[in-house]
Amino acid sequence: MLMATFLLFSYCLIVVKNKAYHGELETPGILGGGLDHEGNVAFGRESHVSDDKGQVPICPPVPPDLRGRINVLENVTVEEAESTGVTEGVKQGGFWWPSHCQARWRVAIIVPYRNRASQLGSFLHHMHNFLQRQELNYSIYVIEQEGDDLFNRARLLNVGYSEAQREGPWDCFAFHDIDMLPEDDRHLYHCSPQPRHLAVATSNHKYKLVYDRYFGGACLMTDKQIKAVNGWSNRYWGWGGEDDDMWRRIAFEDMHVWRYPGKLARYKTIKHRPQVLNKNRFEIVSRNTGRYTHDGLNSLNYTVRNITRKLLYTHILANIGSSRKIASSSVRHRKR
Ligand code: BGN
């Protein structure tokens, strides 16, 4: 009897575990798509821009120097980040690629930014270490919104994509909040045949996925995927909604978001002051029933005020327009 109860209990545990596993993991596993049966790149364009192209072997599919769980150091200043070993081999503007092998992927990290000087040093220090261990060909672009209008994360992501791609080509783009620091370097930032949500388990949500269709915090998309959805919506001023809008775009294009399991896709979030909410976000999201074809990269308007190549990143200051213009044009639209 005791034995039977024990067996039944173990069986239930396995079922529950498997269920949780399926819910969380929508990818076929580490290095799932993108590589053919011999481990060659089977997807995307040629994937390396290093100078020594053709002279060194392609990097192994699983980078050899991964550590697994890694510590997150908060309160690192930019100067401190610049004075560590991580800068070795980094080209002005934050570009790096491995010298002993050809990187499999060229990945631009796009970081929307305003008034977060205290988080920038930790981000740079952490991400350069993380990405170098993954043997990627990468660069970090910090896109700052000029002025003090409501923050428009999605417009900044569109600007970052457009500006980075002008000096690319990059195979894929990680749209990355500055306060999201990955805690496990086995969470590989490679391109995949479907868009990837990166910030699956974050410390501010007790390491649980916020909701099934959550696409915020950090995500990764190829150039082709971004073009297919016309980039991000330009209409979200203030906090919230733009990531839900992107989820819809992806679904409209019959793509499916992939995720690594939460035990790898784990992020420490650095605390900051709450942002101003976008009160219209529910309405704007619900109105996205396919209008993404004319709201996004093809309707993006901005002016680059300044591009500065810093030691560990490229800083782009941009004027991205005003929230008031959008408000008045949508009022006019409704009257018709
Ligand atoms: C959601 C926000 C997301 C945000 C997550 C995480 C909305 C609009 C719903 C239609 N979405 O609630 O933008 O990333 O919380 O905190 O508010």
Automatic annotation (TrEMBL):
Stated name of the protein: Beta-1,4-N-acetylgalactosaminyltransferase
Main location: membrane
Xref: Gene3D superfamilies: Spore Coat Polysaccharide Biosynthesis Protein SpsA, Chain A
Any Gene Ontology CC annotation: membrane
Function recorded in the entry: Catalyzes the transfer of galactose onto proteins or lipids.
Pathway terms, separated by semicolons: Protein modification; protein glycosylation
Signal peptide start and end residues: 1-20
Source organism (scientific name): Halocaridina rubra (Hawaiian red shrimp)
Cofactors (names): Mn(2+)
Sorted UniProt keywords: Glycoprotein, Glycosyltransferase, Manganese, Membrane, Metal-binding, Signal, Signal-anchor, Transferase, Transmembrane, Transmembrane helix
Membrane topology per record: Single-pass type II membrane protein
